[in-house]
Design brief:
Elements (H helix, E strand, L loop, with lengths): L11 E4 L2 E5 L8 E5 L8 E3 L22 H14 L22 H8 L5 E4 L7 H14 L6 E5 L1 H15 L4 E3 L4 H6 L8 H4 L2 E5 H4 L2 H10 L3 E4 L11 H14 L7 E5 L8 H9 L13 H8 L2 E2 L3 H4 L1 E2 L2 E2 L5 E9 L3 H19 L4 H20 L1 H8 L11 H13 L34 H15 L7 H15 L4 E4 L3 H15 L3 E6 L5 H13 L3 E6 L15 E4 L6 H8 L11 E9 L4 H20 L10 H14 L15 H22 L2 H4 L10 H11 L2 H14 L5 E3 L4 E5 L5 H6 L30 E5 L9 E2 L5 H15 L13 E6 L6 E14 L9 E15 L5 E3 L2 H7 L10 H14 L3 H28 L8 H6 L2 E4 L4 E10 L13
Parallel strand pairs: 5-10, 5-11, 6-8, 6-9, 7-8, 9-10, 14-19, 15-17, 15-18, 16-17, 18-19, 22-23, 24-29
Antiparallel strand pairs: 1-2, 2-3, 3-4, 12-13, 20-21, 21-22, 25-26, 25-28, 25-29, 26-27
Length: about 1000
C-alpha cells in the first residue's frame, strides 16, 4: 500500500498491530497518523513499507459474539467519548468538559470572523470571561490556526488558570513562574529550544516575563495565541512596572513582526482615562487608538474587536436563562469603639500628628506621613495588626528618595499599585524608623525614644485583644452567628494577615462545634490557598472562611458561601467589587446573597471612604450600567482626607471626634473626583449597548449546537457509562452520596486497561520499550492505594477523576472498550461492549436494524490570506442509521427522529441464544449488500453537504458576510467524505410479542 492516494488525510491504514487514521502532513517517506481510537498522545510517523490495508472490518457473527442491549449502549457512548476531532463548526466543544452558555458563544463567533483574532472581552465580573477566552484559544488550536498558546496573568491567578484549562478544556498547561522556569528549561533536551516552543500550553507570570533579561526571548518565542488576563493593568499612566507591561504587549501585538492571535480580558476596560482605553484597544489594531467612540462609524469599527456585557444583557439570552443571584442584600454593621480602645486610637493619632508636623527634610516628612497613615489603618483594623506593625520595621523607612517613599506609601495606605493585584498587600507595613524590631519581653535598653513609645503602644494593643475590649470583634461574632442561623456560610475579608488570624482564632472559640473556621492569607502559596478552602468545605456542617484580599480574585467560592463580610474596608472600590464577586456570580445556588460592611462611627474615616468612593462606585454602576474605575485611583481625595486628618485635624486630648466635612481641601477634592467620575461613566454608558453585540445571531446556529449536544450526549451518560463499564469488567463501583461520586478497585481490571490508567505492578512496567519513561505513568507500587475515585463535578483532588468526557481515566476506559470490541481474541469478560446485538422490545412492531457508523471527513478551511494554502483537517462524526424490514423483505430507512426514538428503547423479553445468533448472522451478512453500501455512501455525501453549510452559516451568523475577505473565505470552506465509513456495530430490534412465536421470514 504505497500509492499516494491511499495516504490521503482521513484514510484508514494498519501498522504496528493497530489501525491508524492518516493525518495531513504525510510525505513520500513518512506517513503521519493517529490511532483509530482517537488518542492524540500517540500520533506517530509510520514508514511506508510498514503500512498495510486496515484490519478494521465488518462485525463478524461468531458463535456467542452477539451481545445485549447494554453492550450496544456501552459501545455507542464509548465512541462519543473517544471522539475528539468533531467535524462541526465548533470543533472545540468536542474536547471540553463544560457546556458554554449561549451568551458565552458570542466572543467565539466574533473570533471566527477574524484572522488573526484580535479581541477585547470586557464582560462583567462573574459572567465567565475565562471560559470565553479559553474556548477561543481551544477552537483556534483544534482548527489548526494555532499550535500553542500562553496566558499572561498575575502570579496569584496562575494556578486558577492552570486548573481551568486542565479540568475544563483538556489542556496540560505548565506554569512559568520564578520558581518553575529553571526546572522547565532544564527538562528540555535541546538547550537552544525555548520553553514556549517545547510546551504547547503555558501560564506565565506577567511580572516575571516582562523583565529585561526575559522580555526579548519571550518576544521571539511567544506562542500563536496570547491571552492577557486583567489587561487593564498593562495600560494607563501608572508607574514604571505598568509601562514595562505595556511595552511588552506592544511588541507582542506588532503585526508587522507576526500575526499572532491576541485576546485581552478584563472586567474593567474603562478606567475613566480615555488615553488608557485608547492604548488598550490600540493593542488590537493601531487604527483603533485614534477612534472617537461618540461617533457611530467609529463605534462600529471598535465593535468588531470589543465585546462587553453586563448581567442584564445576558440574564436571558436567546431563550436561555442564566441563574445569577436575583438580588444582593447589603447591610451596614456599625459599632462604637470601647472607651479604652478609643483612647488608644486618640493617643496614636496624637503621636502620629506630632511626628508628621515635626522638623525634618522632604524625604523624612514623606516617610513620617506614610508611616503614620499606615499605622492608623492597622490600629483601626485590629489589636493584632496594630501590635504587629508597631513591632516591625517600617518598609517605607527603607526608601531613599521622596518619590520612592510616596510609591510604597500609596500602595500600603491606599491599596493602590501598578498592577492592582492583591498579592503581598496583606502584610503589615511596619512602623519602627530604624533596625530596632521590638518583640514582647525584649529588653528595651538602647532603643530610641520613638522605639520606646511604639513599644509601649504595642503593649497596649496586646491588652486590647479579645471581644471583652474590642467592639469590632464583638459585632462580627454577632453578624457571623446571624448568617449561620439564616443558612448563609460567610466569607470574612480582612486587610492584614494578623487581623485575619486574630479573627479566625476568636471565631473558632466563639462558634465552637457549630461551624468550622479557617483562615487563608498571603502566607500560603496560591496553590495551597485553594487546598485550604477545599479542606474547609469538605467538612460536615457549616463553614466560615476568613481571608485577606489574596482570595478576592481568581477563586470561585459561590458553591459553598453565600455572604461576604467586609471586616476591614478596602480603600480601593475595585477590591470591594472583587470580594463580592466571589459569591455573587454565575453558579451561586442562592437567589439572594448578602454583603455586610463593618465600620466604626467614632473616627468617621471608614464611613467617609465608604460614602465618597465605594458607595459612589456602586451608584454609578447602578445608574449607568457601567463599572468605571475610580479616576486616578482616587488618590486626590484620599490624600486630601489624609491631610485633613494629619496636618489640619485637632481635637481635645483623649477624644476622638473627627469631622472632615468642613475641610475645604477635602471638599474640593471630593467634588472634582465625582465630577470626573460621573463624566467618564456618562461617556461610556452611551456606547455600551453597541458592544453588547445583541445584533449577533446565535439563534441561527442553534441547530449546530443541538446536533453537537446530541452527538456528545448528556453529562449523565458519562456517569452511567463509567459505572456500568467498570462493573462489567469486575471492578464494581462503590457509591457515596455524601462525596458525590464513587470509587472502584483497580486490581480486577484487565491488565491493558490498568496500564492505560497508569497503574503498574512494579517500576519496570512504567518504562516504555527502550527504557524510556512512559508519559504520565503514575508508577504506583503494588501496595499503594489501588482505587479509582470519581467525582460528579469539578474541582477534584489530586489523583481523583471527574465524570467528564475529557477526564483521562474516562477517555482511557472508552478507548479500551472500543479496542476490545474489535479484538475478538480477548476473553468475553474483558469485552463488555459488543459490535453485534439482538434485543426484543415493544418499541418496534417489526424487525428493525440499527447501524453505528463512524464517518471521516477532510475539512478544508481558508488560509490566512487568499494566497495561502487551505488548512486541511481530519474530522470524524458518529452516526446512527436504521432500517425497518417490510413484509415483502424490502427496507424502509428511518428518519433521524425515528432513529433517535429507537435509541431509548429498552428490552422487554429475553432473547434465546439460538435466535440471537441467527439474527446476528443475518444482519452481518446484510452489511455486504449493495443497497446498504450505496445508502451509506449517499449518507456520507449528505453529511458533508450539511457540515459545509453549517461552517458557512456559523461564520455568516458571526457577521463575516460582507466583511473584508469574509464572503470569499466562506466560499472556500469545503468538506468531503474520506473513504468508507467504519461500521462499528449492528443491532437488531425484534418485536417482543411476535418474537414469542414463529413469524414469516423472522421479520417480526
Amino acid at each position: 500500500m504505497s500509492a499516494t492516494t491511499d495516504r490521503a488525510p482521513g484514510t484508514l491504514v494498519r501498522a504496528r498491530d493497530r489501525d491508524w487514521v492518516v493525518l495531513p502532513g504525510s510525505t513520500e517517506d513518512l506517513v503521519l497518523a493517529q490511532p483509530l481510537d482517537g488518542d492524540r498522545e500517540f500520533v506517530a510517523a509510520l514508514f511506508p513499507d510498514e503500512v498495510r490495508k486496515p484490519g478494521f472490518g465488518l462485525p463478524r457473527a461468531l458463535p456467542g459474539e452477539a451481545g445485549d442491549f447494554a453492550s450496544a449502549s456501552l459501545l455507542r457512548t464509548a465512541l462519543r467519548i473517544a471522539s475528539t476531532a468533531g467535524a462541526g463548526p465548533f470543533r472545540s466543544l468536542n474536547a471540553v468538559a463544560v457546556e458554554p452558555r449561549r451568551y458565552q458563544l458570542v466572543p467565539l463567533m466574533m473570533a471566527l470572523r477574524m484572522d488573526p483574532v484580535r479581541l477585547l472581552i470586557g464582560d462583567d465580573v462573574g459572567i465567565g470571561k475565562t471560559v470565553e477566552s479559553a474556548l477561543i484559544a481551544k477552537e483556534l488550536m483544534e482548527q489548526g490556526s494555532a499550535r500553542n498558546m500562553t496566558v499572561l496573568c498575575s502570579p496569584s491567578l496562575a494556578e486558577q488558570w492552570q486548573r481551568e484549562l486542565r479540568d475544563k478544556f483538556g489542556m496540560d498547561p505548565e506554569l512559568v513562574l520564578p520558581s518553575t522556569a529553571a526546572r522547565l528549561q532544564k527538562a528540555i533536551d535541546d538547550p537552544h529550544r525555548s520553553i514556549f516552543d517545547h510546551y504547547p500550553v503555558t501560564v506565565v507570570s506577567t511580572d516575571f516575563i516582562k523583565q529585561d533579561e526575559r522580555r526579548d526571548a519571550f518576544r521571539r518565542h511567544c506562542p500563536d495565541v496570547l491571552i492577557v488576563d486583567e489587561a487593564h493593568t498593562c495600560v494607563g499612566t501608572g508607574g514604571n512596572e505598568q509601562q514595562k507591561r505595556y511595552e511588552l504587549l506592544s511588541a507582542l501585538a506588532d503585526r508587522t513582526e507576526r500575526d499572532r492571535h491576541l485576546i485581552l480580558v478584563t472586567a474593567t476596560p474603562h478606567s475613566g482615562d480615555p488615553q488608557a482605553f485608547s492604548k488598550l484597544t490600540g493593542l488590537l489594531d493601531p487604527s483603533l487608538r485614534t477612534l472617537d467612540t461618540t461617533r457611530s462609524a467609529d463605534r462600529d469599527k471598535l465593535a468588531r474587536h470589543f465585546v462587553q456585557r453586563r448581567r442584564h444583557d445576558i440574564k436571558r439570552y436567546v431563550g436561555q436563562d442564566t441563574p445569577f443571584p436575583e438580588d444582593r442584600d447589603t447591610q451596614d454593621a456599625l459599632y462604637r469603639l470601647d472607651p479604652d480602645y478609643a483612647r488608644f486610637v486618640a493617643d496614636i493619632l496624637a503621636h502620629t500628628r506630632h511626628q508628621v508636623r515635626g522638623p525634618g527634610g522632604g524625604h523624612h516628612q514623606r516617610m513620617s506621613w506614610w508611616t503614620a497613615l499606615t499605622l492608623l489603618r492597622c490600629v483601626l483594623s485590629s489589636p493584632a495588626a496594630a501590635a504587629a506593625t508597631l513591632r516591625a520595621r517600617s518598609l517605607i523607612a527603607a526608601t531613599r528618595t521622596p518619590a520612592e517613599a510616596d510609591k510604597l506609601g500609596r500602595a500600603a495606605a491606599f491599596e493602590l499599585t501598578d498592577d492592582e493585584t492583591a498579592e503581598g498587600m496583606d502584610v503589615v507595613p511596619g512602623s519602627l524608623p530604624d533596625e530596632d524590631a521590638a518583640t514582647p519581653g525584649e529588653p528595651r535598653k538602647g532603643r530610641t525614644s520613638e522605639a520606646e513609645a511604639l513599644a509601649d503602644f504595642a503593649d497596649r494593643a496586646d491588652a486590647l485583644a479579645g471581644p471583652a475590649t474590642d467592639a469590632k470583634l464583638r459585632i462580627l461574632v454577632d453578624r457571623v452567628k446571624r448568617q449561620l442561623v439564616d443558612g448563609y456560610d460567610p466569607i470574612v475579608f480582612c486587610h492584614y494577615i494578623p487581623t485575619a488570624e486574630y479573627v479566625a482564632r476568636h471565631l473558632k472559640e466563639e462558634l465552637g462545634r457549630s461551624a468550622s473556621v479557617e483562615a487563608v492569607t498571603g502566607t500560603l502559596h496560591p496553590d495551597a490557598r485553594q487546598a485550604r478552602v477545599d479542606e474547609l468545605t469538605a467538612r460536615r456542617g457549616r463553614h466560615v472562611l476568613v481571608a485577606t484580599d489574596c482570595l478576592s480574585e481568581g477563586v470561585n467560592l459561590q458553591e459553598h458561601f453565600g455572604a461576604v463580610i467586609h471586616y476591614d474596608l478596602s480603600w480601593n472600590p475595585t477590591r470591594h467589587l472583587q470580594r463580592a464577586g466571589r459569591v455573587d456570580r454565575f453558579g451561586q445556588p442562592r437567589r439572594r446573597v448578602r454583603e455586610i460592611t463593618v465600620y466604626d462611627t467614632d473616627t468617621g474615616i471608614d464611613g467617609l471612604v465608604l460614602k465618597v468612593l465605594i458607595q459612589k462606585h456602586k451608584d454609578i454602576a447602578d445608574q449607568t450600567g457601567v463599572a468605571v474605575l475610580v479616576p486616578d485611583q482616587g488618590r486626590g481625595v484620599l490624600e486630601a482626607l489624609a491631610s485633613a486628618l494629619l496636618l489640619r485635624g485637632e481635637q481635645p486630648e483623649g477624644q476622638l471626634t473627627l469631622d472632615f466635612e468642613d475641610d475645604p481641601d477635602f471638599g474640593r477634592a471630593r467634588e472634582a473626583l465625582h465630577k470626573e467620575w460621573e463624566s467618564a461613566a456618562e461617556r461610556e454608558s452611551k456606547v455600551l449597548t453597541k458592544f453588547a453585540h445583541s445584533g449577533l445571531r446565535p439563534e441561527e446556529v442553534e441547530a449546530e449546537l443541538d446536533a453537537l449536544r446530541q452527538a456528545l450526549g448528556d453529562p449523565g451518560d458519562i456517569a452511567t457509562f463509567t459505572r456500568e463499564s467498570l462493573g462489567q469488567l469486575g471492578a464494581q463501583p462503590i457509591g457515596d452520596a455524601r462525596d458525590r461520586g464513587f470509587k472502584a478497585p483497580v486490581d480486577p481490571l484487565p491488565t491493558g486497561l490498568k496500564h492505560a490508567l497508569g497503574f503498574y505492578e512494579d517500576a519496570d512496567q512504567t518504562a516504555a520499550p527502550g527504557g524510556a519513561a512512559r508519559a504520565k505513568a503514575k508508577g504506583r507500587a503494588k501496595t499503594a492505594a489501588r482505587d479509582l475515585v470519581f467525582r460528579e463535578d469539578f474541582p477534584v483532588a489530586r489523583g481523583e477523576h471527574a465524570l467528564s468526557r475529557t477526564d483521562p481515566a474516562v477517555r482511557a476506559l472508552a478507548r479500551y472498550l472500543l479496542d476490545a470490541a474489535v479484538d475478538t481474541g480477548l476473553p468475553p469478560e474483558e469485552r463488555p461492549a459488543r459490535r453485534l446485538g439482538v434485543i426484543r422490545t415493544r418499541a418496534v412492531d417489526r424487525r428493525t436494524v440499527l447501524l453505528l457508523a463512524r464517518y471521516r471527513f477532510r475539512l478544508k478551511l481558508p488560509g490566512r490570506t487568499v494566497s495561502d494554502e487551505p488548512r486541511v483537517l481530519v474530522a470524524d462524526d458518529a452516526q446512527v442509521l436504521a432500517w425497518r424490514t417490510g413484509d415483502d423483505g424490502g427496507r424502509t430507512w428511518l428518519s433521524d427522529e425515528e432513529t433517535a426514538a429507537l435509541l431509548t428503547a429498552t428490552p422487554d423479553l429475553n432473547t434465546l441464544p439460538a435466535l440471537r445468533d441467527q439474527q446476528a448472522t443475518r444482519a452481518a451478512a446484510e452489511l455486504r449488500e449493495e443497497e446498504i453500501k450505496e445508502h451509506l455512501k449517499a449518507r456520507g455525501l449528505l453529511l458533508a453537504d450539511r457540515l459545509r453549510e453549517a461552517h458557512q452559516r456559523v461564520r455568516e451568523a458571526a457577521g463575516q458576510r460582507g466583511r473584508e475577505r469574509g464572503a470569499a473565505a466562506v466560499r472556500r470552506i469545503d468538506v468531503q467524505p474520506s473513504g468508507k465509513p467504519d461500521l462499528l456495530g449492528v443491532y437488531v430490534y425484534l418485536s417482543a410479542p411476535a418474537a414469542q412465536r414463529p413469524a414469516s421470514g423472522g421479520d417480526r
